[in-house]
């Protein structure tokens, strides 16, 4: 099912996204599905899925930083999911905590 969703995202949804919110939403979704694959595979398949997830999270993060306020729910969800990926898949707990903390503190500062 993950492969089907990834094909749909790559084949039409991401390319047809018309604003920052939808672009981040679909890129985050793509990254999440690659993360799910990485969490349940081993070896080369895990490495490939982790790289694809990291690329998609990074792409979504760039658009979010440019187009979405720090308090936007999709931007906050992206930071949370990206930090889970860093922690669970890449085993980078310090980077994961730093990312989540920064997103939280940036949002609080704007309220």
How are the SSEs placed, and which strands pair?
Blueprint: H1 2-16, H2 20-39, H3 43-67, H4 73-88, H5 93-110
Helix pairs in contact: 1-2, 2-3, 2-4, 3-4, 4-5
Folded structure, characterized:
With 111 residues, this protein is an all-alpha fold. The protein has helices at 2-16, 20-39, 43-67, 73-88, 93-110. α3 (43-67) packs antiparallel against α4 (73-88) and α4 (73-88) packs antiparallel against α5 (93-110). It starts with a helix and ends with a helix. 30% of the residues are buried.
Keyword list:
0% strand, mainly alpha, 111 residues, flat
Task: Characterize this entry briefly.
The chain is 85% helix and 0% strand.
Structural class: mainly alpha
The total of beta strands comes to 0
Mean pLDDT comes to 97
Give the helix tally.
5
Helix and strand run: HHHHH
């Amino acid at each position: 099912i993950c492969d089907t969703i990834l094909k749909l995202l790559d084949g039409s949804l991401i390319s047809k996204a018309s604003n920052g919110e939808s672009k981040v939403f679909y890129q985050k979704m793509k990254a999440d599905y690659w993360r799910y694959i990485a969490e349940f595979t081993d070896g080369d398949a895990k490495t490939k899925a982790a790289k694809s997830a990291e690329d998609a999270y990074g792409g979504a993060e760039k658009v979010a930083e440019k187009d979405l306020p720090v308090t936007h729910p999709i931007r906050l969800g992206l930071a949370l999911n990206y930090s889970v990926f860093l922690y669970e898949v890449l085993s980078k707990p310090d980077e994961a905590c730093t990312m989540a903390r920064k997103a939280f503190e940036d949002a609080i500062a704007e309220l």
